[in-house]
Amino acid sequence: MEQKFKEIASRYCKGDVGEITPEMAIREDLGLSSLDLMTFLGDLEDEFDIEFDFGADEQKLGNIRTVGDAIGLLNEYVG
Amino acid sequence: MKKTIHTLWNRSAKDYADLPAVRWLVKKDIKEISYKQADEVISGLRKGAYALGFEHRHIALVGTNSAEWIEAYMSVVTSTNTAVPLDSALPAHDLIDLIDRSDSEGVFLDPKFASLATEIKDKCKKVKKIWMLSDEAIEGTESLKDLIAAGEGADEPSAPEEDDISMIVFTSGTTGKSKGVMLTQSNLYTNIEAILYDMDPGLIFLSVLPVHHCFCLVMDWLNGFWMGAVLCINDSLMHMVRNMTIFNPDVMLMVPLMVETIYKRLRTLDPSIPPEVVSEKVFGKNLKYIFTGGAHLEPYYIEEFNKYGIDVYEGYGMSECSPVISSNKIGDSKPGSIGRPLPNVEIKFVDGEILVRSTSVMKGYYKMEKETEETLKDGWLHTGDKGYIDEDGFLFINGRVKNLIILSNGENISPEEIENRLALNDLIGEIVVTGEDNLLTARIFPDPDMTGGMSDEEIRNALQEILNDYNKQQPTYKQLSKLVVRKYPFLKNTTRKIIRAEVYRDEQGA
């Protein structure tokens, strides 16, 4: 799943998928804009066939800063 | 014929009666209403409000883009009432403040923000009615059905005059208070009239901008309705790209940030795939025209999108001008410029600043006479932008007179507004907010009296805490992403004002 996640993330950033680490900040390190991050979350929904709950998980979604944060949240939905 | 939105809508409802007016998604199904069906709802809502005594009253709208939001909005702007579209992403106390300050007596409320209803009732004393943008009401509110029922069998209210205020849109203010831009019926009508392009009815628009924005309301919705277009609602920015392949639009209005995001998508696709295949996969089958505004677009993107058969036209405007001032047009454009001034716009330059006189210039800021006098002098709107017109008559922007930060999503951030709020904190001695790479940075000189005995790390952590608290209450675009802690105060001029232009230069070692 992590690999698929990174492939989707790489649609929005330059560089090699292999270089993405969980510690990286999505906006500052990967260079995603706020809109990139939104559409990236939309891609995750489509690719993993899930639907983020913006009511209940608003805080969690709003607090995504690093690649690890996003993978963690994704695990909750996919798992 | 009166140049009003009432005239515009009635003409379209009659001429395009059986054509689809609005499309939207419910889960994966596409729903649709025709111009005739939309008109029935709009007329019903308008009569209902009139029967309840709403005539020349202000009615606020809180919600995201939906068919109900648009129907409610159209019911207000086709009457003598004034629509006050608000940014639903704002913190609750700001929304309450704006509902109150705009003297709104009715509120249309998206069910997603139902929790606001009680607070509005308690704190906005002028509000007499709250209508949920839904067929179901919650306690203390009424539904759209209830509103339509209130006007059942009643006559149509009298039509608005050209000079009636059709809407008040709020825009960033430098003193910490956002300003309500008053736009008349004819301000809006003549702005659309000046920008119309020759296309057959049935053209498909996908509306992706926030619906409370003047650019979206006037250039997607009112302009689209004028042309008999099919307006498709993008349910979420998360699915903007996917929705392009679902609705297959011909035309889209964007802010540069959206163009940049789509470009990143294009760039990562396999270069061996033919452009027409890529284009269909990313933009849908029909996209031909993208109009951008709200912030400057690098001409590079125009060239890149051209390779996929898509023309990108940059324009320029501000809410105070309903909003378009100049625009590149189909068959008449120059990349890098913001197009020629519209036919109803006169431009002059004073000390490099662009001044505008037009039938689309606002009446003023609502209950802010001083701010109105500063911006509108002798009928000329002071844009705060510096620019010039080249030998071919195209307008260019090359700087700003005021301190607004324009992000590439088109949001205008007033640094003073954020600074004034944060400066209330004792730990902050001096603060300047700047924008780089679409992120806001707080540059802070901590108050030496308050930081005695604290290590650099403790100071940084304490300041970061303050920013975190602030960020929690703000929409994403107003959040402060970076913190620079300064060791020395900012350079100041003789009147002890911080010299903004010197903020970066004197930062080394600061």
From TrEMBL, chain A:
<dbReference type="Pfam" id="PF00550">
    <property type="entry name" value="PP-binding"/>
</dbReference>
<feature type="domain" description="Carrier">
    <location>
        <begin position="1"/>
        <end position="78"/>
    </location>
</feature>
<protein>
    <submittedName>
        <fullName>Acyl carrier protein</fullName>
    </submittedName>
</protein>
<dbReference type="InterPro" id="IPR036736">
    <property type="entry name" value="ACP-like_sf"/>
</dbReference>
<dbReference type="InterPro" id="IPR009081">
    <property type="entry name" value="PP-bd_ACP"/>
</dbReference>
UniProtKB/TrEMBL annotation, chain B:
<dbReference type="InterPro" id="IPR000873">
    <property type="entry name" value="AMP-dep_synth/lig_dom"/>
</dbReference>
<keyword id="KW-0067">ATP-binding</keyword>
<feature type="domain" description="AMP-dependent synthetase/ligase">
    <location>
        <begin position="11"/>
        <end position="366"/>
    </location>
</feature>
<keyword id="KW-0547">Nucleotide-binding</keyword>
<dbReference type="Pfam" id="PF00501">
    <property type="entry name" value="AMP-binding"/>
</dbReference>
<protein>
    <submittedName>
        <fullName>Long-chain acyl-CoA synthetase</fullName>
    </submittedName>
</protein>
<dbReference type="Pfam" id="PF23562">
    <property type="entry name" value="AMP-binding_C_3"/>
</dbReference>
<dbReference type="InterPro" id="IPR042099">
    <property type="entry name" value="ANL_N_sf"/>
</dbReference>
<dbReference type="InterPro" id="IPR045851">
    <property type="entry name" value="AMP-bd_C_sf"/>
</dbReference>
<dbReference type="GO" id="GO:0005524">
    <property type="term" value="F:ATP binding"/>
</dbReference>
<dbReference type="InterPro" id="IPR020845">
    <property type="entry name" value="AMP-binding_CS"/>
</dbReference>
<dbReference type="GO" id="GO:0016020">
    <property type="term" value="C:membrane"/>
</dbReference>
<dbReference type="GO" id="GO:0004467">
    <property type="term" value="F:long-chain fatty acid-CoA ligase activity"/>
</dbReference>
